[in-house]
Fold this protein.
Amino acid sequence: MIVVVAGEIDFAPEVRDEVLKDAQPLIDMALAEKGCRHYAWTLDPHNPGRIHVFEEWETAEDLAAHLVAEPYYKMGAHLGGFTILGANTRKYRCDISEPVYGPDGVATAKFLTAKD
């Protein structure tokens, strides 16, 4: 079962780019961890102080290992060097993963392999 972590962290607009630039080595470390499919921190083009966080892990156990690993603790220390104005991160367990586009090439919200 895939685990997705998604959220946003808000900083003062004048420090947002620095926060993300200086976090890049820690993001690279997390990407090298077992089970890490995606670990993307990106600037929000509509909110000048916001960074979006998106992570995808092979298993809950892989995420659990990350949450006690060096990159996670170092990222916390890095972010703690700035004033966080707001943060909201959530985790999701995903039991079905399919392409958005069906075999006919049309985007669909329906899960074609779901049995319900």
In short: The CA atoms of residues 33 and 92 lie 19 Å apart. Helices lie at 13-31, 60-66, 70-80. The domain at 2-94 is CATH 3.30.70.100 (Alpha-Beta Plaits).
